[in-house]
Design a protein that fits this description.
Helices cover about 65% and strands about 0% of the residues. The chain has about 350 residues and is mainly alpha-helical. The chain has one domain. It has a two-stranded antiparallel ribbon. Strand 1 and strand 2 form a beta hairpin. Helix 1 packs across helix 9, helix 4 runs antiparallel to helix 5 and helix 7 runs antiparallel to helix 12.
């Protein structure tokens, strides 16, 4: 199999995977809410309501596509399109598994293995806020504009803490390459005085505070509860998406769920060993490269789905913050904690070596 053919197949598979998980995250969200609130949840469309995402998608496609009279039409369309595009493209640099072997040639399960994968994802996440800002401003609606302003200030505030938490991981591994970060957690020896454990030498064991900061910032970056101030229904109708209908609204909704999927995949790479699992070297030696590769994909997706379920659990557990509380947490709590963690990490590396 040629490399180009494999890459095209991988891109299509990743595209379908992201959309499928985003669609069924809407079903899972309702089921999690139903369990926590002692309800049944979706149960009409197909067995256990499993066809509900298809029914929702059909509803979005066939609803009237309404554009406000005084809206900036081009930007009104560009906003949700940009959100969805940025959400999908970030998955290109994530290593989804070890390798697969076809015809004696090993292929990486990563669309683009670039040296600065961490910066690429952070950069794309920063651009993603423009989709919300453009949509909120182009709607010519005061509630949409307020939601867009909230989104931009919220994302800027929490990106700082997220970046500082990332720096500690970069200092430990000495690389911005996501493949290298994953491999380091498999067999590498991170701290000089702690022996590596094959398959579970995960960064969260060495950087629990960085993980906590990054996780909270990821909730804010994806506009998830308790940080959903940009689309706060009780204050702003539905915020930046108030004037949207049909599939444009669907793009905003699916973009949020794709963001949640990619964010959790990124967290898995950084803190939970990526595609590594206990015994991965033994499986490779005894069952072959393809068996190890398939199990690595299963392990990666399992960790990611657990993270998505935790996001949903938090949504139906915690109340929404006030806006001043959100800003206080970002600027006066997370950023100082991230700076302290960064200095301690640097001191430990300087004292004991990397």
């Amino acid at each position: 199999m040629e490399l180009l053919t494999f890459k095209i197949i991988l891109v299509l598979a990743l595209f379908l995977l992201a959309l499928t998980i985003a669609a069924y995250s809407t079903w899972a969200e309702r089921k999690v809410a139903a369990i926590m609130q002692d309800r049944i949840g979706p149960n009409r469309s197909g067995p256990f309501g499993l066809l509900q995402p298809l029914a929702d998608g059909g509803k979005f496609f066939f609803k009237e596509d309404f554009t406000p009279q005084h809206a900036e039409k081009f930007l009104f369309i560009l906003g949700p399109s940009l959100v969805m595009f940025i959400s999908l493209i970030t998955g290109a640099v994530i290593p989804w598994g070890k390798t697969l072997n076809f015809g004696g040639v090993s292929y990486d399960l990563q669309v683009a293995n670039i040296d600065v994968g961490v910066l690429f994802i952070i950069g794309m996440a920063s651009i993603g806020v423009y989709g919300i800002m453009i949509g909120g401003w182009a709607s010519n609606n005061k509630y949409s504009l307020l939601g867009a302003i909230r989104a931009s200030s919220q994302m800027i505030s929490y990106e700082l803490a997220m970046g500082l938490a990332l720096l500690s991981i970069i200092m430990m591994t000495g690389s911005l390459d996501l493949k290298m970060i994953s491999e380091t957690q498999a067999t590498g020896k991170i701290w000089g005085f702690i022996p590596a454990i094959s398959g579970i030498n995960w960064n969260i064991l060495y950087q629990p505070l960085a993980f906590l900061i990054f996780f909270v910032a990821a909730l804010a970056e994806t506009n998830r509860h308790p940080f959903d101030l940009p689309e706060c229904e009780s204050e702003l109708v539905t915020g930046y998406s108030t004037e949207y209908s049909s599939m444009k609204l669907g793009l905003y909704m699916f973009g949020e769920y794709v963001n949640m999927f990619i964010s959790n995949a990124f967290i898995v790479v950084l803190f939970f060993g990526g595609y590594n699992y206990p015994g991965i070297d033994w499986v490779t030696q005894n069952w072959g490269e393809n068996a190890a590769g398939i199990l690595s994909i299963v392990a990666f997706l399992t960790k990611t789905i657990v993270g998505i379920l935790i996001f949903m659990w938090i949504r139906w557990t915690l109340p929404r913050f006030r806006y001043d509380q959100l800003m206080h947490l970002g600027w006066k709590t997370l950023i100082p904690l991230a700076l302290v963690n960064l200095m301690v990490t640097g001191a430990v590396i300087l004292a004991f070596g990397n």
